[in-house]
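Milestone 3.1: sequence recovery, worked example.
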């Protein structure tokens, strides 16, 4: 599909200049013209776009619309940055949540609640004990966020209608696809290593001396498969996680913007929407998170598969066991999603302003 760029058609580009989804500037148009080898000899009439720039070209809309789309550059950089900052701030709550989920009634339980878990951990291992397993999540936060936002942007760009609008239902499906992809490529091995590290600390004689030593030992004893325990549960958890979060986030943003798709959203509003989306995902899939954690622990051999794990939890511990760690997870996830979406949206805005030229 091509457009002969002349004076009336310049308004098309002006619309793109104002669209937050595209970083298209006169400089990009000029660069594209040079790349395409187009000039006065191509037979296209001259046109003026913003200021003194003159262009002579037949421009491919598909190529132009794909230039510097945030799904590639922004999602990798900003998503990784947001993920790293978020996990450093909220990891202690993740640690407590995982400990409570691993604390089975049959043992009997070692902790009497959140406060007791924090107290015992600090007494035996110091404050740094609350950050045991941080490295595995920190190393995986950049690729995880890159895959999540990159896949969501890729899918949503194909799911939007002609006006560029993404409805809530399609947002849910795009989120589901992003969650499944990040689960398979990044989250499952990352979470397996994290859970084994945290579980190892509860042993009388901890075996893992650090991230790389732990990963080496796991692979030596169990092979690569040892880092992919609980894959089914992880796919279900991450898929439902991102489906719920992006569904809620898309719904709230569409509601807030109303009939004005270019309406700016305040960072506090973005954070509030993110926290609501995070809370919805916690209440929606904590049972899957509990099953995933059990399947990735050091005692995962007790379960034949994901379904067997769920049945044994129900049989021996009751329905309430599926919601262990909900409170610390709620605190971490709400803060997590709020931080990630605030950083993502604000950096996109900044880059969109800085990248433009008049």
């Amino acid at each position: 599909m091509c457009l002969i760029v002349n004076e009336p058609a310049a308004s098309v580009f002006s619309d793109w200049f104002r669209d937050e989804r595209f970083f298209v500037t006169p400089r990009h148009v000029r660069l594209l013209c040079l790349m395409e080898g187009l000039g006065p000899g191509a037979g296209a009439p001259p046109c003026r776009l913003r200021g003194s720039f003159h262009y002579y070209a037949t421009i491919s809309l598909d190529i132009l619309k794909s230039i510097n789309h945030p799904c590639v550059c922004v999602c990798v950089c900003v998503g990784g940055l947001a993920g790293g900052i978020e996990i450093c701030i909220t990891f202690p709550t993740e640690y407590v949540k995982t400990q409570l989920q691993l604390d089975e009634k049959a043992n009997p339980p070692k902790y009497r609640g959140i406060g007791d878990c924090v107290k015992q951990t600090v007494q035996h291992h110091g404050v740094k004990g609350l950050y045991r397993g941080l490295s595995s999540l920190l190393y995986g936060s950049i690729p995880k966020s890159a895959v999540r936002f990159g896949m969501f942007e890729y899918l949503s760009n194909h799911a939007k209608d002609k006006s560029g609008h993404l409805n809530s239902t399609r947002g849910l499906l795009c989120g589901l696809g992003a969650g499944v992809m990040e689960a398979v490529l990044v989250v499952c091995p990352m979470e397996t290593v994290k859970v084994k590290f945290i579980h190892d600390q509860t042993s009388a004689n901890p075996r893992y001396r650090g991230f790389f030593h732990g990963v080496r030992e796991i692979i030596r004893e169990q092979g690569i498969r040892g880092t992919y325990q609980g894959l089914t549960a992880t796919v279900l958890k991450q898929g439902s996680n991102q489906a719920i979060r992006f569904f809620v986030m898309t719904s709230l943003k569409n509601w807030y913007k109303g009939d004005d798709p270019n309406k700016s959203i305040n960072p506090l509003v973005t954070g509030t929407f993110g926290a609501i989306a995070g809370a919805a995902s916690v209440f929606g899939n904590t049972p899957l998170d509990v099953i995933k954690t059990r399947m990735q622990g050091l005692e995962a051999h007790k379960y034949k598969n994901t379904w067997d794990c769920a049945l044994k939890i129900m049989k021996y511990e009751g329905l309430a066991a599926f919601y262990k760690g909900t409170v610390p997870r709620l605190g971490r996830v709400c803060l997590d999603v709020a931080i990630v979406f605030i950083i993502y949206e604000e950096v996109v805005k900044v880059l969109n302003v800085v990248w433009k030229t008049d």
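Residues 1-71 have pLDDT under 50 and may be disordered. The longest strand covers residues 2-4.
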